[in-house]
Amino acid sequence: MPITYIAQPKITAQDFIDILDKSTLGLRRPLQDLAAMQMMFDHGNVYVGAYDGGKLVGLARVMTDFVFTSYLSDLAIDEAYQHRGIGKQLIIEVKKFLPRAKIILLAAPAAEGYYPKIGMRNHGHCYVLDSVEEIK
Description:
Helix 1 (13-22) crosses helix 2. 26% of the residues lie in helices and 25% in strands. The protein has a five-stranded mixed sheet with strand order 1-2-3-4-5. The protein has helices at residues 13-22, 34-43, 86-97, 114-117; strands spanning 3-7, 46-52, 55-64, 69-77, 102-104. It is built from four helices and five strands; from the N terminus they run E-H-H-E-E-E-H-E-H. The protein is an alpha+beta fold.
């Protein structure tokens, strides 16, 4: 059965947690903090799901203004389905849903080599602030 892609699928915060847990992103997200995960889920404003039949096997979560910027905060593919082009197709589906907005992301260390392979450009002007105490 071919993988199908659905923009704005009817999913729950638990579905979000489950796909993160089945992907390598589960290691870097606060999956045990259900309140935090619910907030993360609630404040994503674009989702694209990849389905094998009725089973969610991949998910892109985006925060966007729909015109200028789209932050692809999660690209989670069930480990059993990785290396099949699902991540690349999810990014394509996000871009089709948001044709005017740039897609921006922070790559997980293990995925840094993936994005250039599919044509995304590295941008050297990204900065990160974790805590207000870091401001000098």
